[in-house]
Design a protein that fits this description.
Strands 5-4-1-13-14-15 form a six-stranded parallel sheet, sandwiched between helices. Strands 7-6-8-9-12 form a five-stranded parallel sheet, with helices on both faces. It is built from ten helices and 15 strands. It is globular, with a radius of gyration of 18 Å. Helix content is 39%, strand content 20%. It starts with 8 loop residues before the first strand and ends with a helix. 44% of the residues are buried. The chain is an alpha/beta fold and 264 residues long.
């Protein structure tokens, strides 16, 4: 049976877990301070690959959370780590934002639209019809097909915008191809990339988040700990009906801290 105090790496979802919209939760800063004081590591993990870790450092700073780029882990970075384990310096056709392109170049990849070793689809808010044509052409040609994450929609203030899942569906409709690998939550690859980067064992890692089908499902898929908080998307009523179960459930981060302080 897992124990909260056995976890040493806390992978924190952001929106709905440490803040909601433009509001930082009152319990966030005390929780982060507690983890630091007790020798644990917190990283901020996101499926959104339209921004690199430097952009998230700036975003978190606006909430008063000062972190280094090393403390932010995106599905985009996880994808570069996954690729570098297989073919360092590979030729990649990347459909992504300039921010994601910068991350791939820094990781040593050659971005090209000619004879790529891999085609990579990110959450591309600069997507054009020309890019979609190239993606479909490479998919039909059998080029290994990698996606940073599976989300169909990205939450924004006031609603949602189409995310990478809608782009995956477009390519499948045109070519019949599904991605060969999807790296981000709820797939185990993003957790394994984080364990490799930060040097923690599986039993020392937990995912903290408010979404059942991404955050909590990652716990089961990667065989790591999972902590659900009710501060965001999931309600107690929804959790009661769900087939996805967490190792621990709390109202918010304050509940986690209180339980850890009590020795749970």
């Amino acid at each position: 049976m897992k124990k909260l105090n056995d976890f040493k790496l806390f992978m924190l979802d952001m929106d709905g877990t440490i803040y909601l919209g433009s509001r930082l939760f009152d319990c966030t800063m005390p929780f982060l301070a507690y983890l630091k004081e007790t020798g644990r590591k917190a990283i901020f993990l996101t499926n959104n690959s339209s921004k690199n870790r430097y952009a998230y450092v700036d975003k978190l700073a606006k909430y008063g959370i000062n972190v280094t780029p090393d403390e932010v882990f995106t599905s985009g970075e996880a994808t570069t780590l996954w690729l570098n384990e297989r073919k360092p310096g590979a030729r990649v056709y990347l459909a992504g934002t300039p921010s994601l392109e910068e991350e791939f170049r820094e990781a040593g990849f050659v971005l090209t639209d000619e004879n790529p070793d891999y085609m990579v689809l990110g959450f591309d808010q600069t997507l054009t019809y020309e890019k979609l044509i190239k993606l479909c052409d490479f998919a039909r040609a059998g080029v290994p097909y990698v996606c940073t994450h599976p989300d169909f929609n990205c939450p924004i203030d006031g609603g949602f915008i189409p995310d990478i899942g809608a782009m995956i569906a477009f390519i499948k409709a045109s070519t019949g191809r599904e991605p060969d690998i999807i790296v981000g939550k709820p797939n185990r690859s993003i957790a394994e990339a984080a364990m490799h980067k930060y040097g923690f064992k599986r039993e020392e890692v937990c995912m903290v988040g408010d979404r059942l089908y991404t955050d909590i499902a990652l716990g089961a898929n990667a065989d790591i700990g999972s902590i659900l908080v009710y501060s965001g998307e999931t309600t107690p009523e929804e959790y009661e009906k769900s087939d996805v179960t967490a190792d621990f459930v709390f109202d918010d981060l304050a509940g986690i801290q209180k339980a850890m302080e009590s020795g749970l």
